[in-house]
Write a structure and sequence with these properties.
single chain; about 100 residues; mainly alpha; two-stranded antiparallel ribbon; 3 helices
């Protein structure tokens, strides 16, 4: 937690605005430096690659935190309730043709 002075009062903000503006200015300087390289096509490619990477990270954490424990709990539930043996013991119905 960083403190910074704003309108004669101290505010506690986890991510201060000055940090964000510094990062933004760094990005602007970088963009000006590589302006020749960043054509519209390259920008689109980079944008989609970044979006795909973000979705992959979100999907990985969703798998670790939500899907994996849910599947584990479901398997434990089915093993505990003997549902698997009951499902295996059901025989397919046969119809006699007359």
């Amino acid at each position: 937690m960083l403190l910074y002075k704003s309108y004669e009062a101290y505010s506690v903000i986890p991510c201060p605005l000055s940090f964000l503006t510094n990062k933004l200015m760094f990005g602007v300087k970088l963009a000006n430096k590589y302006k020749k390289f960043m054509t519209e096509k390259n920008f689109e490619r980079m944008f989609f690659i970044v979006i795909i990477i973000i979705y992959a990270i979100i999907g990985y954490f969703a798998y670790q935190r939500v899907i994996k424990p849910t599947a584990k709990a479901a398997l434990q539930f089915f093993n505990a309730s003997n549902a698997t043996q009951q499902i295996e013991s059901i025989k397919p119905q046969t119809y006699n043709s007359r």
